[in-house]
């Protein structure tokens, strides 16, 4: 058998067990009754092996409401730094913001997201970023269900060959389409809020029967019935 | 405490009273406690007699309608930055009005627990609240306080009368861009200034205070008649003293004042006397616009509008005009003409505004084509925008720059239209899309391609595009394109067959036992899809028939059938029935759209009365008849489907 697994399991910190315990509880069936964590990360770049998260921002969405107070924003202290990406997110290595260690950030983040569905724009990138960070700290991967507003948005467009759907829709395009202010673009929390509002509008357009249906809607539509 | 979002909330709130009076620290703390609430169109925020929530609301995006129960009349619409639902919290009463999202809306819910101490501490906030409740308006500092917010106690309970009365009690909206001159200004200069600002009167001021007023009428009667020379000065012809009123004036008061003194302009000053500076001028025109029941006045207001925000307000009036017409049972043909005319004027004005936003004038002549229902003159409610740009051919070396210019213009226009209330087209059939922005030759190529290879997509595209109507610019360009299309109809006879087949693709409205067929699935389960099952078959059939006769520039479906009746006397009866049916269905859709504040496309059958159901079913018979007519005429059966 796998020689390391049992040993490693024992070393997991209490906050991880607490996070994992949360998944014994089933998610509500109705979309309105679910709490969605809409989030975004700012990173030093796009490479999972080399680049690091600088900031995580998230808001909780419950029945169409977002409590400002209950949002999540941490800045992470990182050794790796990339001057080019700093131009985008404006996070300098020696900025004034208070910063915490990666492990501390993960701990807070897991405590915040619990077993809620994670919503993000091209969310798998952020999930993979967090998973890479978890692995560096000897922890397993995220267990949450995810929803990608990029995929969901595509489903709101008409099914027709007439419209040439793009492969990917940038968050900027969504913001424009739904006339959301792009003022805080490229701060993790600002992007999370833009994504949250876009998500609400998309859900309204898609009118899913329940949570399962909404998650299924991310897959490309099936033809030939 | 603060974070990125609370900073953003604070950034927004600080622009609006009473939050503008808060110190930045206080605002920061308050913003941190805010909840951001998203409301779908028509969802209720609070209802009448409901116990007060623990927070009040500020509109961040969208609009909220306040209504009294059992009345369809909207008492007030709250826009960006407006507060509502505050007084019941302070007075510990239940809500007296119902608040409903008038479109998709984002609200900031501000907890009263955190706000109250601030209101008590900060006397400017307190003053604002006292003043706003005393004057019974939402925002006493705003120039456009329209209407009362809370607990309107109607003494007289006579149904319809009360509602119009409530409207009349609305404070009037006046122009605060004052155009002024001094007593010594030459008359010629005055006339030029008035012309430049496109106003009908000018205020004469002395040391900042209003002393008199000169109107178009003065110039006409005193100068043009030769009574005074054009080189004279303002003092010689002004009407003095100016009649002044306080700025808080309701529509009715303003009307009374004008009638009393037989004048067409009122000067509004700080305290209503000539001893304080003027803040605005109110013309008869403003009063008429506020009444909003006259298309000519609305048309003029549209042409005068300088930005899309103002146009958005005017569109509200267009909707109430429409409501009025339907209530009075005015023939729908006439109604749709007037409303389309107003819609067209709005779009024209938007285009003019947008061109000014571009750095340069358009490089070549162009046409703005509206397609789909607006092109057919059947768009009564705000629905999607479908449009395209057609511009003159340019030499190859300029083609890229020209296309870029028109694409940019197209996207400015479509954004502005969206601000006014025309939704984006979900299929991106808009001039901002490179596929819908072409030169004449390019369009010829595109349409030839569609007609030569009529697959389902091409048929769909042509059926949308071929209803185009010139809203702005060079009509000759569009005519050339039409001619080209008719030529192609002759060249590709197969195309009409395919178009006819497309017209028969719509699902049937009724089942075997003449029952309504309702939607089986999705958001509108058990609703009847009026557009797809009843209107579209008629519209599609009219299009293919009229194309086969090479008749251009008749786009309206009902008119197309009337023309067809003229061209084919042997089928007159069917065509006239179709014309009637399309008008009836359009009216049906509009009525339901107004009732539910949506596009009216989906009808809840259980809400219909017997008469309405019979009327609807009668149109189905007509639809079946016209469908079998085109099936036989264009030999659709022979087509391999």
Provide structural commentary:
- The complex is a heterodimer of chains A (225) and B (641).
- Chain A is built from 9 helices and 6 strands.
- With 225 residues, chain A is α/β, with parallel strands linked by helices.
- In chain A, β2 (53-62) and β3 form a beta hairpin.
- Chain A starts with a helix and ends in a 9-residue tail after the last helix.
- Chain B is an alpha+beta fold and 641 residues long.
- Chain B has 4 domains: 4-168, Jelly Rolls (Sandwich); 180-291, Roll (CBS-domain); 295-445, Beta Polymerase, domain 2; 501-638.
- Helices cover 49% and strands 14% of the residues of chain B.
- Chain B contains 24 helices and 20 strands.
- In chain B, α7 links the parallel β9 (180-181) and β10.
- The longest helix of chain B is centred in the middle third of the chain and has 26 residues, at 332-357.
- Mean pLDDT of chain B is 80; it is low at 135-169.
- At the A-B interface, β3 and α8 of A face α1, β1 and α18 of B.
Set down the secondary structure blueprint:
The complex is a heterodimer of chains A (225) and B (641).
Chain A: H1 5-10, H2 14-21, E1 35-43, E2 53-62, E3 65-67, E4 72-75, H3 83-89, H4 102-113, E5 117-120, H5 123-136, E6 146-148, H6 149-156, H7 171-177, H8 188-206, H9 211-216
Parallel strand pairs in A: 1-5, 5-6
Antiparallel strand pairs in A: 1-2, 2-3, 2-4
Helix pairs in contact in A: 6-8
Chain B: H1 4-13, H2 24-32, E1 35-39, E2 44-46, E3 55-61, E4 64-67, E5 74-78, E6 83-84, H3 87-91, E7 98-101, E8 105-111, H4 112-121, H5 123-134, H6 159-168, E9 180-181, H7 187-197, E10 201-206, E11 209-215, H8 216-223, H9 234-237, E12 244-246, H10 251-261, E13 265-269, E14 278-283, H11 284-291, H12 295-304, H13 308-327, H14 332-357, E15 366-370, H15 372-375, E16 387-391, H16 396-420, E17 437-439, H17 440-452, H18 456-465, E18 469-473, H19 475-491, H20 493-503, E19 527-529, H21 530-548, H22 557-567, H23 572-596, E20 602-604, H24 610-633
Parallel strand pairs in B: 9-10, 12-13, 16-17
Antiparallel strand pairs in B: 1-8, 2-7, 3-6, 3-8, 4-5, 4-7, 10-11, 13-14, 15-16, 15-18, 19-20
Keywords (chain A): Exonuclease, Hydrolase, Nuclease
Function (chain A): DNA polymerase III is a complex, multichain enzyme responsible for most of the replicative synthesis in bacteria. The epsilon subunit contain the editing function and is a proofreading 3'-5' exonuclease.
Organism (chain A): Flagellimonas hadalis
